[in-house]
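In keeping with the milestone schedule agreed at the kick-off meeting, the structural modelling team has produced records for the first pair of proteins. Each record is given below as a sequence line and a C-alpha coordinate line. The laboratory manager (R.T.) confirmed that both were archived under the project's standard naming scheme.
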Amino acid sequence: MMRMHECEISFVRLPDVSPDEILAHMSDPRVAEHMPLLTFTWDQDTVAGFVNAKEACWHRDGLGHWAILADGRYVGWGGFQKEGDEWDFGLVLKPEAFGLGMLISRKAMEFARTDERIPYVTFLLPPSRRSLGALARMGAIYVGDIDYNGTRFLKYQLETG
Protein backbone atom coordinates (compact mmCIF):
# COMPACT_ATOMS: atom_id res chain seq x y z
CA MET A 1 0.00 0.00 0.00
CA MET A 2 1.30 3.45 -0.89
CA ARG A 3 1.76 5.87 2.00
CA MET A 4 1.86 9.65 2.30
CA HIS A 5 5.66 9.82 2.40
CA GLU A 6 6.80 12.61 0.09
CA CYS A 7 4.53 11.49 -2.73
CA GLU A 8 3.93 14.01 -5.52
CA ILE A 9 0.19 14.13 -6.22
CA SER A 10 -1.07 15.57 -9.48
CA PHE A 11 -4.50 15.87 -11.06
CA VAL A 12 -4.93 15.29 -14.81
CA ARG A 13 -7.97 14.78 -16.98
CA LEU A 14 -9.31 11.24 -17.32
CA PRO A 15 -8.67 11.04 -21.10
CA ASP A 16 -4.95 11.45 -20.30
CA VAL A 17 -4.92 8.00 -18.66
CA SER A 18 -5.00 4.70 -20.48
CA PRO A 19 -8.52 3.20 -20.55
CA ASP A 20 -6.88 -0.12 -19.61
CA GLU A 21 -5.65 1.43 -16.33
CA ILE A 22 -9.17 2.60 -15.47
CA LEU A 23 -10.65 -0.77 -16.47
CA ALA A 24 -8.21 -2.70 -14.26
CA HIS A 25 -8.88 -0.30 -11.37
CA MET A 26 -12.66 -0.45 -11.58
CA SER A 27 -12.68 -4.24 -12.09
CA ASP A 28 -10.88 -4.87 -8.79
CA PRO A 29 -13.43 -6.39 -6.36
CA ARG A 30 -11.80 -4.53 -3.43
CA VAL A 31 -12.86 -1.25 -5.05
CA ALA A 32 -16.50 -2.35 -5.31
CA GLU A 33 -16.69 -3.18 -1.57
CA HIS A 34 -17.49 0.45 -0.72
CA MET A 35 -19.32 1.39 -3.91
CA PRO A 36 -22.91 0.19 -3.53
CA LEU A 37 -23.89 1.68 -6.89
CA LEU A 38 -21.25 -0.42 -8.66
CA THR A 39 -23.51 -3.34 -9.54
CA PHE A 40 -22.22 -4.07 -13.03
CA THR A 41 -19.07 -5.36 -14.71
CA TRP A 42 -16.77 -2.84 -16.32
CA ASP A 43 -15.55 -3.29 -19.90
CA GLN A 44 -13.99 -1.01 -22.53
CA ASP A 45 -17.41 0.44 -23.41
CA THR A 46 -18.13 1.18 -19.75
CA VAL A 47 -14.80 2.98 -19.42
CA ALA A 48 -15.46 5.03 -22.56
CA GLY A 49 -18.94 5.99 -21.30
CA PHE A 50 -17.55 6.85 -17.86
CA VAL A 51 -14.80 9.08 -19.26
CA ASN A 52 -17.26 10.77 -21.64
CA ALA A 53 -19.74 11.42 -18.80
CA LYS A 54 -17.03 12.90 -16.57
CA GLU A 55 -15.74 15.06 -19.43
CA ALA A 56 -19.32 16.29 -20.03
CA CYS A 57 -19.30 17.59 -16.44
CA TRP A 58 -16.16 19.58 -17.22
CA HIS A 59 -17.81 21.09 -20.30
CA ARG A 60 -21.08 21.84 -18.46
CA ASP A 61 -19.72 23.03 -15.10
CA GLY A 62 -16.08 23.93 -15.74
CA LEU A 63 -15.02 21.36 -13.15
CA GLY A 64 -15.26 17.62 -12.70
CA HIS A 65 -13.35 14.48 -11.85
CA TRP A 66 -9.65 14.04 -12.46
CA ALA A 67 -7.40 11.08 -12.88
CA ILE A 68 -5.06 11.17 -9.89
CA LEU A 69 -1.37 10.47 -10.23
CA ALA A 70 1.13 9.75 -7.46
CA ASP A 71 4.70 10.24 -8.65
CA GLY A 72 3.34 10.11 -12.19
CA ARG A 73 1.49 6.79 -11.78
CA TYR A 74 -2.30 6.45 -11.95
CA VAL A 75 -3.69 5.70 -8.48
CA GLY A 76 -7.38 6.47 -8.96
CA TRP A 77 -9.91 9.11 -9.87
CA GLY A 78 -11.87 11.72 -8.02
CA GLY A 79 -12.81 15.33 -7.81
CA PHE A 80 -15.82 17.58 -7.74
CA GLN A 81 -19.16 16.98 -9.38
CA LYS A 82 -22.10 19.34 -9.29
CA GLU A 83 -25.13 17.70 -7.64
CA GLY A 84 -27.94 20.26 -7.83
CA ASP A 85 -26.50 23.39 -6.20
CA GLU A 86 -23.80 21.50 -4.29
CA TRP A 87 -20.31 20.39 -5.19
CA ASP A 88 -19.82 16.78 -4.14
CA PHE A 89 -16.32 15.40 -3.70
CA GLY A 90 -15.69 11.79 -4.59
CA LEU A 91 -12.53 9.72 -4.47
CA VAL A 92 -12.03 6.19 -5.78
CA LEU A 93 -8.51 4.86 -5.28
CA LYS A 94 -6.78 1.67 -6.32
CA PRO A 95 -6.40 -0.61 -3.29
CA GLU A 96 -2.63 -0.17 -3.16
CA ALA A 97 -3.20 3.60 -2.92
CA PHE A 98 -5.82 3.60 -0.14
CA GLY A 99 -3.21 5.11 2.22
CA LEU A 100 -3.04 8.23 0.03
CA GLY A 101 -6.67 9.23 0.54
CA MET A 102 -6.03 11.95 3.11
CA LEU A 103 -3.12 13.48 1.17
CA ILE A 104 -5.18 13.58 -2.04
CA SER A 105 -8.25 14.93 -0.24
CA ARG A 106 -6.23 17.71 1.38
CA LYS A 107 -4.85 18.75 -2.00
CA ALA A 108 -8.34 18.73 -3.51
CA MET A 109 -9.73 20.78 -0.59
CA GLU A 110 -6.93 23.34 -1.10
CA PHE A 111 -8.18 23.63 -4.68
CA ALA A 112 -11.80 24.02 -3.48
CA ARG A 113 -10.81 26.80 -1.06
CA THR A 114 -9.38 28.83 -3.94
CA ASP A 115 -12.41 28.35 -6.20
CA GLU A 116 -15.12 30.91 -5.43
CA ARG A 117 -17.79 28.65 -6.96
CA ILE A 118 -17.36 26.20 -4.07
CA PRO A 119 -18.58 27.64 -0.72
CA TYR A 120 -18.70 24.13 0.72
CA VAL A 121 -18.12 20.55 -0.35
CA THR A 122 -20.33 17.54 0.32
CA PHE A 123 -19.23 13.94 0.74
CA LEU A 124 -21.54 10.94 0.27
CA LEU A 125 -20.24 7.81 1.94
CA PRO A 126 -21.77 4.35 2.05
CA PRO A 127 -22.73 3.14 5.54
CA SER A 128 -20.15 0.36 5.10
CA ARG A 129 -17.43 2.97 5.66
CA ARG A 130 -16.55 2.63 9.33
CA SER A 131 -13.48 4.84 9.56
CA LEU A 132 -14.76 8.40 9.33
CA GLY A 133 -12.17 10.10 11.53
CA ALA A 134 -10.38 11.65 8.56
CA LEU A 135 -13.50 13.60 7.66
CA ALA A 136 -13.79 14.92 11.22
CA ARG A 137 -10.11 15.91 11.23
CA MET A 138 -10.73 17.88 8.02
CA GLY A 139 -13.63 19.67 9.73
CA ALA A 140 -16.51 18.00 7.89
CA ILE A 141 -19.78 17.63 9.78
CA TYR A 142 -22.41 14.96 9.44
CA VAL A 143 -25.54 16.37 7.77
CA GLY A 144 -27.70 13.24 7.69
CA ASP A 145 -28.57 10.17 5.70
CA ILE A 146 -29.75 10.63 2.13
CA ASP A 147 -31.12 8.40 -0.59
CA TYR A 148 -29.14 8.53 -3.84
CA ASN A 149 -30.39 6.37 -6.71
CA GLY A 150 -32.22 4.11 -4.24
CA THR A 151 -29.20 3.63 -1.98
CA ARG A 152 -28.61 5.11 1.48
CA PHE A 153 -25.52 7.25 1.99
CA LEU A 154 -24.09 9.24 4.88
CA LYS A 155 -23.81 12.90 3.91
CA TYR A 156 -21.09 15.16 5.27
CA GLN A 157 -20.34 18.80 4.54
CA LEU A 158 -17.14 20.83 4.74
CA GLU A 159 -17.11 24.63 4.59
CA THR A 160 -14.40 25.89 2.26
CA GLY A 161 -14.68 29.62 2.90
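The second protein of the pair:
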Amino acid sequence: MRHYFPGILLLFLFPFFLFAEEPEVKRERIFTGEGLYGFMNGGAEQFLEYGVTRLVTRDLTYKDEEYTIDIYDMPTPEDAFGIYSLHIFKCTRADTDGCMDCLSPYQLQAVAGNNYISVVFPSGSEAAKSHVDELLRLYIPMDGKKNPRIPDILKLTPPYSGQLKFLRGPISVSGVSTSLSKLLENIPYTGIWFIADKPGKRYKALIYLKDKEVTGKLKAKLSEAAVIQAGNNFIYMKGEEAEKEENDQGDFGF
Protein backbone atom coordinates (compact mmCIF):
# COMPACT_ATOMS: atom_id res chain seq x y z
CA MET A 1 0.00 0.00 0.00
CA ARG A 2 1.33 3.44 -0.90
CA HIS A 3 1.39 6.21 1.69
CA TYR A 4 1.14 9.87 0.69
CA PHE A 5 2.69 12.56 2.83
CA PRO A 6 -0.13 14.99 3.65
CA GLY A 7 1.84 18.03 2.55
CA ILE A 8 2.53 16.54 -0.87
CA LEU A 9 -1.14 15.68 -1.30
CA LEU A 10 -2.13 19.26 -0.50
CA LEU A 11 0.51 20.55 -2.90
CA PHE A 12 -0.94 18.39 -5.66
CA LEU A 13 -4.54 19.30 -4.98
CA PHE A 14 -4.23 23.03 -4.34
CA PRO A 15 -1.25 24.44 -6.28
CA PHE A 16 -3.12 27.66 -7.12
CA PHE A 17 -3.64 28.67 -3.51
CA LEU A 18 -0.07 27.86 -2.56
CA PHE A 19 1.67 29.77 -5.33
CA ALA A 20 -0.68 32.50 -6.58
CA GLU A 21 0.37 35.95 -5.47
CA GLU A 22 -2.42 37.81 -3.74
CA PRO A 23 -3.17 41.36 -4.95
CA GLU A 24 -2.73 44.09 -2.35
CA VAL A 25 -6.06 45.92 -2.29
CA LYS A 26 -5.55 49.55 -1.36
CA ARG A 27 -9.15 50.66 -1.65
CA GLU A 28 -12.48 48.98 -2.39
CA ARG A 29 -15.80 50.68 -3.00
CA ILE A 30 -19.24 49.30 -3.84
CA PHE A 31 -21.97 51.26 -5.62
CA THR A 32 -25.55 50.20 -6.35
CA GLY A 33 -28.40 51.76 -8.33
CA GLU A 34 -28.54 55.52 -8.06
CA GLY A 35 -25.23 55.50 -6.19
CA LEU A 36 -23.54 55.14 -9.57
CA TYR A 37 -24.35 58.78 -10.35
CA GLY A 38 -21.92 60.06 -7.73
CA PHE A 39 -19.15 57.79 -8.97
CA MET A 40 -19.52 58.15 -12.72
CA ASN A 41 -20.02 61.92 -13.08
CA GLY A 42 -22.93 61.81 -15.51
CA GLY A 43 -22.13 58.56 -17.30
CA ALA A 44 -24.45 56.42 -15.19
CA GLU A 45 -27.57 56.80 -17.37
CA GLN A 46 -26.15 54.54 -20.03
CA PHE A 47 -25.26 51.83 -17.51
CA LEU A 48 -28.66 52.11 -15.84
CA GLU A 49 -30.33 51.67 -19.24
CA TYR A 50 -28.67 48.25 -19.37
CA GLY A 51 -29.90 47.47 -15.84
CA VAL A 52 -26.64 47.54 -13.88
CA THR A 53 -27.26 46.38 -10.32
CA ARG A 54 -23.86 46.79 -8.69
CA LEU A 55 -20.32 48.05 -9.27
CA VAL A 56 -17.34 46.88 -7.25
CA THR A 57 -14.20 48.93 -7.86
CA ARG A 58 -10.78 48.12 -6.40
CA ASP A 59 -7.48 50.01 -6.53
CA LEU A 60 -4.73 47.45 -6.05
CA THR A 61 -1.14 46.44 -6.56
CA TYR A 62 -0.26 43.15 -8.24
CA LYS A 63 3.32 42.04 -8.91
CA ASP A 64 4.54 45.59 -8.26
CA GLU A 65 2.16 47.14 -10.79
CA GLU A 66 -0.80 49.44 -10.09
CA TYR A 67 -4.27 48.50 -11.35
CA THR A 68 -7.88 49.57 -10.97
CA ILE A 69 -10.44 46.84 -11.57
CA ASP A 70 -14.15 47.62 -11.98
CA ILE A 71 -16.66 44.76 -12.00
CA TYR A 72 -20.22 45.59 -13.07
CA ASP A 73 -23.06 43.17 -12.32
CA MET A 74 -25.58 43.21 -15.17
CA PRO A 75 -28.91 41.35 -15.56
CA THR A 76 -27.82 39.14 -18.48
CA PRO A 77 -24.69 38.26 -20.51
CA GLU A 78 -26.22 40.27 -23.38
CA ASP A 79 -26.44 43.38 -21.17
CA ALA A 80 -22.84 42.84 -20.05
CA PHE A 81 -21.75 42.54 -23.68
CA GLY A 82 -23.85 45.56 -24.62
CA ILE A 83 -22.22 47.99 -22.21
CA TYR A 84 -18.83 46.47 -23.05
CA SER A 85 -19.44 46.90 -26.79
CA LEU A 86 -19.99 50.64 -26.32
CA HIS A 87 -16.73 51.15 -24.44
CA ILE A 88 -14.11 49.33 -26.51
CA PHE A 89 -12.01 51.09 -29.14
CA LYS A 90 -9.07 49.96 -31.27
CA CYS A 91 -8.33 46.63 -29.61
CA THR A 92 -4.74 45.46 -30.00
CA ARG A 93 -6.04 41.98 -29.14
CA ALA A 94 -9.63 40.78 -29.13
CA ASP A 95 -11.52 37.64 -28.02
CA THR A 96 -8.41 35.59 -27.34
CA ASP A 97 -8.84 34.71 -23.65
CA GLY A 98 -11.66 32.20 -24.11
CA CYS A 99 -14.12 35.03 -23.60
CA MET A 100 -14.96 38.35 -25.18
CA ASP A 101 -12.13 40.71 -24.36
CA CYS A 102 -10.37 43.77 -25.72
CA LEU A 103 -6.83 44.77 -24.81
CA SER A 104 -5.68 48.33 -25.42
CA PRO A 105 -2.47 50.11 -24.33
CA TYR A 106 -3.75 50.98 -20.83
CA GLN A 107 -6.80 48.79 -20.30
CA LEU A 108 -8.23 45.28 -20.56
CA GLN A 109 -12.01 45.01 -20.88
CA ALA A 110 -13.92 41.75 -20.86
CA VAL A 111 -17.29 40.05 -20.57
CA ALA A 112 -17.72 37.05 -18.27
CA GLY A 113 -21.28 35.85 -17.84
CA ASN A 114 -23.32 38.70 -16.37
CA ASN A 115 -20.22 40.77 -15.62
CA TYR A 116 -18.62 43.60 -17.56
CA ILE A 117 -15.07 44.10 -16.31
CA SER A 118 -12.57 46.89 -16.85
CA VAL A 119 -8.96 46.67 -15.67
CA VAL A 120 -6.90 49.85 -16.07
CA PHE A 121 -3.11 49.86 -15.69
CA PRO A 122 -1.99 53.52 -15.83
CA SER A 123 1.70 52.78 -16.40
CA GLY A 124 1.00 51.06 -19.71
CA SER A 125 4.18 49.08 -19.12
CA GLU A 126 4.86 45.69 -20.68
CA ALA A 127 5.08 44.23 -17.17
CA ALA A 128 1.62 45.52 -16.24
CA LYS A 129 0.21 44.29 -19.54
CA SER A 130 1.75 40.83 -19.14
CA HIS A 131 0.11 40.30 -15.73
CA VAL A 132 -3.33 41.74 -16.45
CA ASP A 133 -4.89 38.46 -17.69
CA GLU A 134 -3.85 36.48 -14.64
CA LEU A 135 -5.01 39.29 -12.36
CA LEU A 136 -8.44 39.25 -13.97
CA ARG A 137 -8.73 35.50 -13.49
CA LEU A 138 -8.24 35.91 -9.75
CA TYR A 139 -11.62 37.65 -9.65
CA ILE A 140 -13.63 36.34 -12.62
CA PRO A 141 -13.79 32.94 -14.38
CA MET A 142 -12.78 33.56 -18.00
CA ASP A 143 -13.75 30.21 -19.52
CA GLY A 144 -16.35 31.54 -21.96
CA LYS A 145 -19.01 29.10 -20.73
CA LYS A 146 -21.56 31.87 -20.12
CA ASN A 147 -20.77 34.10 -23.07
CA PRO A 148 -23.77 35.84 -24.64
CA ARG A 149 -25.24 33.87 -27.53
CA ILE A 150 -24.66 35.68 -30.80
CA PRO A 151 -27.70 35.15 -33.07
CA ASP A 152 -26.95 32.80 -35.98
CA ILE A 153 -28.92 35.03 -38.33
CA LEU A 154 -26.10 37.60 -38.17
CA LYS A 155 -23.67 35.11 -39.77
CA LEU A 156 -20.71 36.57 -37.91
CA THR A 157 -17.47 34.85 -36.97
CA PRO A 158 -15.14 35.79 -34.08
CA PRO A 159 -13.74 38.10 -33.03
CA TYR A 160 -17.05 39.76 -32.23
CA SER A 161 -15.46 42.58 -30.25
CA GLY A 162 -15.21 45.66 -32.41
CA GLN A 163 -17.63 44.55 -35.12
CA LEU A 164 -20.83 44.01 -33.12
CA LYS A 165 -22.79 46.03 -30.57
CA PHE A 166 -25.84 45.23 -28.48
CA LEU A 167 -28.20 48.15 -27.82
CA ARG A 168 -30.79 48.09 -25.07
CA GLY A 169 -32.57 51.45 -25.25
CA PRO A 170 -32.78 54.98 -26.68
CA ILE A 171 -29.58 56.23 -25.03
CA SER A 172 -27.41 53.54 -26.56
CA VAL A 173 -29.23 53.65 -29.91
CA SER A 174 -28.94 57.42 -30.29
CA GLY A 175 -25.25 57.25 -29.42
CA VAL A 176 -24.62 54.77 -32.22
CA SER A 177 -26.94 55.78 -35.08
CA THR A 178 -29.08 58.87 -35.56
CA SER A 179 -30.84 57.22 -38.49
CA LEU A 180 -31.86 54.13 -36.50
CA SER A 181 -32.86 56.24 -33.53
CA LYS A 182 -35.29 58.24 -35.67
CA LEU A 183 -36.64 55.10 -37.30
CA LEU A 184 -37.46 53.57 -33.90
CA GLU A 185 -39.36 56.54 -32.50
CA ASN A 186 -42.61 55.24 -30.94
CA ILE A 187 -41.54 51.66 -31.68
CA PRO A 188 -41.12 49.56 -28.49
CA TYR A 189 -38.21 47.12 -28.74
CA THR A 190 -36.37 44.89 -26.29
CA GLY A 191 -32.88 44.79 -27.77
CA ILE A 192 -30.87 45.37 -30.94
CA TRP A 193 -27.79 43.67 -32.37
CA PHE A 194 -26.03 46.32 -34.44
CA ILE A 195 -23.30 45.95 -37.08
CA ALA A 196 -21.84 49.08 -38.64
CA ASP A 197 -19.89 49.61 -41.83
CA LYS A 198 -18.45 52.92 -40.75
CA PRO A 199 -16.61 53.89 -43.97
CA GLY A 200 -19.76 53.29 -46.00
CA LYS A 201 -22.09 54.75 -43.38
CA ARG A 202 -24.23 51.64 -43.68
CA TYR A 203 -25.43 49.33 -40.95
CA LYS A 204 -27.40 46.19 -40.22
CA ALA A 205 -29.66 45.87 -37.20
CA LEU A 206 -31.41 42.83 -35.76
CA ILE A 207 -34.27 44.40 -33.81
CA TYR A 208 -36.30 42.40 -31.29
CA LEU A 209 -39.79 43.84 -30.91
CA LYS A 210 -42.59 43.64 -28.38
CA ASP A 211 -45.04 41.61 -30.48
CA LYS A 212 -46.34 40.87 -33.98
CA GLU A 213 -48.31 44.11 -34.13
CA VAL A 214 -45.25 46.24 -33.39
CA THR A 215 -43.22 44.23 -35.89
CA GLY A 216 -45.79 45.06 -38.57
CA LYS A 217 -45.69 48.73 -37.63
CA LEU A 218 -41.92 48.90 -38.05
CA LYS A 219 -41.97 46.85 -41.24
CA ALA A 220 -44.42 49.36 -42.74
CA LYS A 221 -41.81 52.09 -42.26
CA LEU A 222 -39.17 50.16 -44.22
CA SER A 223 -38.71 49.56 -47.91
CA GLU A 224 -38.88 45.96 -49.08
CA ALA A 225 -35.18 46.09 -49.97
CA ALA A 226 -34.28 47.14 -46.42
CA VAL A 227 -35.72 44.00 -44.81
CA ILE A 228 -33.24 41.12 -44.77
CA GLN A 229 -35.46 38.81 -42.74
CA ALA A 230 -38.47 39.17 -40.47
CA GLY A 231 -40.46 37.10 -37.99
CA ASN A 232 -43.28 37.63 -35.51
CA ASN A 233 -41.12 39.54 -33.06
CA PHE A 234 -38.00 40.58 -34.96
CA ILE A 235 -36.80 42.37 -38.05
CA TYR A 236 -33.29 42.06 -39.44
CA MET A 237 -32.75 45.13 -41.59
CA LYS A 238 -30.13 47.19 -43.34
CA GLY A 239 -29.94 50.94 -43.37
CA GLU A 240 -27.79 53.91 -44.20
CA GLU A 241 -26.81 56.79 -42.00
CA ALA A 242 -28.19 60.11 -43.17
CA GLU A 243 -25.84 62.86 -44.26
CA LYS A 244 -24.67 65.02 -41.39
CA GLU A 245 -26.53 68.20 -40.78
CA GLU A 246 -24.49 71.37 -40.55
CA ASN A 247 -24.26 71.32 -36.75
CA ASP A 248 -24.25 67.53 -36.38
CA GLN A 249 -20.99 66.24 -35.01
CA GLY A 250 -22.22 62.66 -34.62
CA ASP A 251 -21.55 59.53 -36.59
CA PHE A 252 -21.96 55.93 -35.64
CA GLY A 253 -20.38 56.61 -32.25
CA PHE A 254 -17.49 54.18 -32.86
